[in-house]
Amino acid sequence: MKKPGKSLAVFLLQLLVNLIYFPLFFNLSHSRTREKAIRHFVADSNLAVTKPTPELVRQSLQYYRMFKRLNMFLLLAGVYIKEIDIFFKTLGNVTVSGMEILEKNKGKSIVGLSYHIGPFPIMPIILALRGYDSKVLVRSDTLQKQARMSIEKINESMAFLARTFNVGKVQFIDSLSTFSLIMVRKCLKDGDILMLHPDTAKESSVSSIPVDFFNTRIAGHIGVAKLCRFTRATVIPFAIRWDARHNIQLTIDKPLDINPDGTDEEIINAIYRPFEKAVTASPEQWIQIESYEAFKY
Question: Where are the alpha helices (DSSP H) in 204-291?
Fold first, then answer.
């Protein structure tokens, strides 16, 4: 069976460049931007009481570096199959709580609600190792910019890994595609988990709706509310984070009480309540915090 991707030499060169170049680039260009966003966020929320701003800034920069290194290694590891084993060893201990909730809802249409907090890119892989197929709804332009690979190439590599290791399959659905709704419906009909990350609406527009977030309001994806109404799926919150020892914890919570016949405002507020809860628990691990000002409605 032919392996997708590039040679080992190319993989090692890319890995070396990213592990050395990224920390230097990050320190020069991102630290101040991220620190400014954190201070604005703390000023708008009530988190300054429980976590001093300087400590939050320090921890946030640390976890962001961990996230970028993990994300780069995940993408590069998919290029050369033998490095996958090395990658999983670098994850450390992974604990999962709430698997009984998935088992209880097996056979139903499930929308997995997650956010850009902690090592979120590996969440579908953790589920795949436990035999669950999932599809992640993303914008192809954003994914290609982050991964420097097309969505077709990533799906090809993930399918190859699923066959090689005999685990669940992870695929990406392009939300910009005219066939996205058809693919979403097929995903849910097949019993796969549809993963969403709704905390990325970066400006108020006709495709967003204001949603309460701490002591302010941010732009929420109105499309997420319409998707819940369209699919009438069971919506289950997922939360993933690093603990104090940098081990990974994945928590699967009970399904949200969402009325698919409710208004967009009612549905979107129900969807974003777990988001505020997750940020309150681990504000230093919110990867998108540097875009906080752009989130405001």
Answer: 222-231, 264-281
Do the domain assignments include residue 133? Answer: yes
Single-letter residue type at 35: E
Non-local (6+) Cβ contacts of 266 within 8 A are: 259
Q: Could you tell me the residue range of the domain that residue 132 belongs to?
A: 93-295
pLDDT > 70: percent of the chain: 76
Distance between CA atoms of residues 148 and 143, nearest Å = 8
- 144: in domain: yes
Domain count, the chain: 1
Residue 12, in any domain of the structure: no
Distance from the first to the final alpha carbon of the chain: 51
Least-confidence region, from 5-9, 52-56, 277-281, 288-292 = 5-9
Residue 252: burial class (beta carbons within 10 Å; 0-12, 13-18, 19+): buried
Alpha-carbon torsion, ordered 44, 119, 183, 159, to 10 deg: 170
Contact between 223 and 217 (Cβ < 8 Å)? no
Read off the pLDDT of residues 6-60 as tens digits, 9 standing for 90 and up: 455 555 555 555 555 555 555 545 677 777 788 778 777 766 556 667 778 888 8
